[in-house]
């Protein structure tokens, strides 16, 4: 049984034990982590308990410590044998350890990291204690059969730790397979390149990458694009690539044909996004054939490291979940679960209800186990026993996307117009009806209360949206095809219309099904977009966790700060639907250098002009636009001031492309010439490259970014300089590529997943938007420090003055808890 103890430790002992004690680098959680580790080491070394009294007037640190059952049992034994309370035992163990060890900072590599140490030596890498701790945490999750949360700051070396933890697992459990899921292809490349740099002497198991459909291009779509004269310069190189059957480049870490990434390298100016495989590809397309070849699992080795995206893992889990739900044994267990739920609801006796609850948990676990066995070979991915999820703060949204369908009504209109032009079964009247339906949706958005309308709402706006979508669906019915030639482009557009009908039908019928349908509008509410999917993914998550022997969810942001100085893991435990019996949250790994480079943190003053307007202000449309412009003018002034005093580049994290567009017109000419303005049409990598080019040209660049820049951006003078510009990385001491991060507006409303919207509408008592905002804010600040040894000239600027408003009091407290470890200017 675990135990919680409270005791005093002299501050001079804390200084000896805790790196950075007395500075923002060592917060309350860091102190607890070191004290717990010290107790464990003292017990491991079987140190004698020294009877050292703490003077009553000594400067002390009060420590409240939770010990797991194993440590707690050892402390109880010492408590009984020495005749002192358990808290005193812990205090004396710590004082004894400090007395014995002259240099007591816990900076030595703990045991169990032999493979990691071998890799360091073979590759000529330096020892990294934080990386060793990540490795041990991952290994502990696997060995304990846990579904663990592992929070570790960016820059501690999570990539190598995860690869070697996967390798260690394969050695400990021969014949298994370890999957590593990451959010983006760029991160897949990072893992593959890190794997490729490992020395052959390590004898690593093979690494196999699996890509989603959108990472392959359609040969016919590429040829269609090349008909445009504006891409004449790229024509020869791309035609040669097509003749070579879309072969990969020799230096690519992924030896697959027809990859989007290969085409980007061959023809950077080509808009490759329009060439990727559609949701309804031609089965004879060689790009589609290359995609399908990945799933010939019988030719794969049983023991390997499997690399995929969150989305691919989500699709595979969805397939397995569907197959499992149709197993007779699983259905029988589900029936028993429902019977028990009804019995629990009717039971009034407390003891009997508890017994029934335990029986329910056991049957649920049995159902998940049976489902995992029944669907082992049913997913897109081959069976795997262990799982590592990188950037796990994005995983729930990816799982929601995998379980949802998306339709751009603008794209539907364009496809219908093309089909009509080519004589493919859509009359001019039907095209006009689709256009009219979209125009009605745009009109509805003008008086809607928000930028999202759920079709489940009982409002006039929702009723009109349902009626308009039904009219669009009716107009999508395809008539007789007049033109029967082999027009592949028209066939593809026709398939788009047919696919759109499926999504529209699901949306129109969502009130009588388990589907959740949303219509969303852009920041300027011009183009409606339709999302249809499940409101919850806990069933999918349960299936995933039930199918693995152990897993770890890794990220720099998984835990939320608490008012008492500790951290809470509950939010992500619930989002990821991790079962109680297997859940474990490791202490966050936060090295002192993460904060040593922070020169200052500037929180907002009570300045009305720096309060961004919102719909809650109940302004008219015209007044809202005017207030938005006034606010952006103030932001422009602040950014200009910050850039003038910055030691290097400045990243301004915005919450919408529309605001960035307005800012681009407000910026002074001198600053605009050194600025990068993010747009929806430019990828994050393209924007990052432009920012780095300005910095390498000696300009003090400012980058206005949004979207993935909050959570998935790695920018600086290290690897990005090499991967994006092909230039050698700068040393940490001379890296001033990015020195300031500015956050004009708290990142509310950036989570657009169907499940997030569902939670907000169905569990209003939980502050979902606030929790999501705090995690995103923490992620945004993490863009600044990406490596150790940076100069102490980094600054963080929060401009959003709304935190001073009375109704923002709770939000203000949470925001300040995020900034507290950094100090403030």
Automatic annotation (TrEMBL):
GO molecular function term, any single one: hydrolase activity
Domain Helicase ATP-binding: 117-469, 139-232
SUPFAM superfamilies (UniProt xref): P-loop containing nucleoside triphosphate hydrolases (SSF52540)
Keyword Cytoplasm: no
Name under which the protein is recorded: Uncharacterized protein
Keywords for the protein's UniProt record, in alphabetical order: ATP-binding, Hydrolase, Nucleotide-binding, Plasmid
UniProt-listed Pfam families: DEAD
